[in-house]
Design goal:
Structural class: mainly alpha
Largest sheet: 2 strands, antiparallel
Helix content: 55-70%
Shape: globular
Mean pLDDT: 77
Number of strands: 2
Distance between the termini: 11 Å
Length: about 375
């Protein structure tokens, strides 16, 4: 939302600037941008930025987090009369696979994981958490990100070095590990009457020592996934010349720039699957293993991780290790998560592609030859907002 706010604010300034622009010799203004056209374009961008933010939070954060902790399947015995009769239906079996001979009024039902379907997950959350499920954990999420921005700003204020900013971001993530874990606990558990800050695990320091290593690994991979596509994309083609004052891009360059941005998204998805997903799964499952006993999970979830966790009361750590967290996530769960990631990525990329098409149509219609200057200004705003 910071980028959208910056875009709108600077866009208004851009409209004012070009509405009054004249050449130094008082000749008629060149490439003037109509204020009403710029307003329509800015509102379109703002709408899509909000839409992308909502999709990113609900599908890219809430649903994926649940997918990382849900057990692969659930089995249960139900009365035979509650099941719709089906011709040639198989007989009931016991958990060990043997045929059930002594009890004819029950049937074994094996259900698919809830998170195997985006639609089913959304329906499940709506039933269990209400129609405002899209805002689950949003308060903790906002505080976590806002505090992280302040910490990063304080640590990187001494220099404009991008490397220092990356190091500052990693330090901020590790320092705020407990708040991050609190957000995960809110997402994976049933709605609670407690405020989000009342759910921060205590004692704070001892809890932080348990979750900090997993968060540190995740923070490093997240920075690689975020920064590397930008560095690669801005190192060639049209975007490489955008900071050159003498560069005058036209509609041909606009198409090339859109292609480079699409390439950046593909590279981001690839790095996300190969690096960020394993690190995130391990971190989320370590945090999930520390969920307080009084909190009920909102999806089926094996708190013992197949017996790998030992409660603190009997001398254990009360959590799962990083390596065990990833290994306990079996191949069936990994395939389900990968399918969900592909669905989420396709949904977000389709939305982005729709935005690109709409933006290009509006650019042709509203700006004409003045779009080159608007394009350069948007690129500068995006660089300052990122």
């Amino acid at each position: 939302m910071t980028l959208a706010h910056s875009f709108i604010r600077r866009g208004v300034n851009l409209v004012q600037r070009y509405s009054t622009m004249r050449q130094a010799d008082d000749t008629p203004e060149v490439h003037q941008i109509p204020p009403f056209a710029a307003l329509i374009f800015l509102l379109t961008c703002a709408f899509f930025f909000v839409l992308l933010a909502v999709l990113s939070y609900t599908a890219g954060h809430l649903i994926l987090t649940l997918c990382m902790v849900e057990s692969s399947s659930t089995t249960a015995y139900v009365p035979i009369e509650s099941v719709e009769p089906v011709d040639d239906s198989p007989p009931a079996y016991q958990e060990d696979g043997s045929l059930r001979q002594d009890d004819a009024d029950v049937n074994l039902i094996k259900t698919q994981p809830i998170t195997a379907s985006l639609k089913e997950t959304a329906r499940h959350l709506r039933v269990r958490a209400g129609y405002l499920w899209v805002f689950r954990g949003f308060s903790a999420y906002v505080v976590w990100n806002f505090t992280r921005s302040i910490v990063v700003g304080m640590l990187s204020s001494a220099s404009n070095s991008p490397f220092l900013t990356i190091i500052a971001a990693i330090i901020a993530e590790v320092a705020l590990a407990n708040i991050h874990m609190t957000w995960i606990h809110i997402i994976i558990s049933e709605p609670s009457p407690k405020r989000w800050y009342q759910r921060i695990p205590t004692p704070y320091l001892r809890t932080w020592k348990k979750i900090a290593p997993a968060v540190a690994i995740w923070a490093v991979t997240s920075q690689v996934v975020t920064i590397l596509p930008l560095l690669v994309t801005n190192s060639f083609g049209v975007l490489r010349h955008m900071n050159d004052p003498s560069y005058q891009p036209g509609m041909k360059e606009a198409y090339a720039g859109a292609g480079q941005l699409f390439f950046a998204m593909l590279l981001t998805v690839l790095l996300f699957v190969l690096l960020d997903v394993p690190a995130t799964v391990a971190m989320v499952r370590v945090a999930a293993s520390m969920l307080p006993e009084e909190d009920e999970t909102i999806v089926p979830f094996d708190r013992t991780f197949g017996g790998l966790t030992t409660p603190e009361i009997i001398g254990g750590q009360g959590k799962i290790g990083i390596v065990e967290a990833w290994r306990s996530f079996n191949w069936e769960c990994r395939r389900r998560l990968l399918k969900t990631v592909v669905k989420v990525a396709a949904l977000i990329m389709a939305t982005w592609l729709l935005f690109s098409i709409v933006a290009m149509i509006e650019a042709h219609t509203l700006f004409g030859p003045a779009f080159g200057e608007m394009m350069k200004s948007m690129h500068g705003i995006a660089n300052r907002g990122s």
